Automatic annotation (TrEMBL):
Signal peptide (residue range): none
Name of the protein described by the UniProt record: Winged helix-turn-helix transcriptional regulator
Superkingdom, natural source: Archaea
Record-annotated membrane-spanning stretches: none
SUPFAM superfamilies: Winged helix' DNA-binding domain
């Protein structure tokens, strides 16, 4: 295996769910070079590619479907913040989460769509149709959280979104 391919494989092993742009940035390689070596790694079954939510993520083969989806979502700082809030505070109403995390309700809903789709969070309804957000697999989710740390670029995008929410004046716990 070439040195470049080994570096890419090592980075994917060390940082499961890393997305393509982050991989090229972190390794300071040309996109075409990374694509070429990733294809070789995929053909050798050393790397698994999965496109989720507008990004192509890379994993080693031991990660199953649920883990790959969880890691892709958790690479986004706001989704991580929501999940950490729920794990720390227990089942919570959406307005409580928006206030606790400091995000707009629309931002919470965008991230919740992905958290629910990847079976990380469940929306439970009571007899009066009030929603409570609940972490579905707390132990496994905690394990996934330990594996992922969003890149600086990912954090900047999430923080910019929060800034725009604040500038638009959408209340953090507004109804949507």
């Amino acid at each position: 295996m070439s040195e470049t391919r080994s570096r890419i494989a090592h980075r994917v092993r060390r940082d499961p769910g890393i997305h393509f742009n982050e991989l090229t940035r972190e390794l300071d390689l040309a996109p075409g070079q990374v694509q070429y070596h990733l294809r070789k790694l995929e053909h050798a079954d050393d790397v698994v590619e999965e496109s989720l939510y507008g990004r192509t993520h890379y994993y080693t083969p031991e990660y199953g479907t649920w883990e790959r989806g969880a890691l892709a979502v958790l690479r986004r700082e706001t989704a991580r913040d929501v999940l950490v809030y729920l794990m720390t505070n227990g089942p919570s109403a959406p307005n409580t989460v928006t206030d606790g995390v400091g995000i707009a309700r629309s931002t919470l809903e965008w991230h919740l769509d992905h958290l629910v789709e990847q079976d990380l969070v469940e929306k439970e309804r009571d007899t009066r149709n009030r929603v409570t957000l609940v972490v579905t697999e707390p132990e496994e989710t905690a394990r996934m959280l330990r594996l992922v740390e969003p890149s600086v670029a990912d954090r900047l995008v999430d923080r910019f979104t929060r800034l725009v929410d604040g500038l638009l004046g959408e209340p953090a716990s507004g109804a949507h």
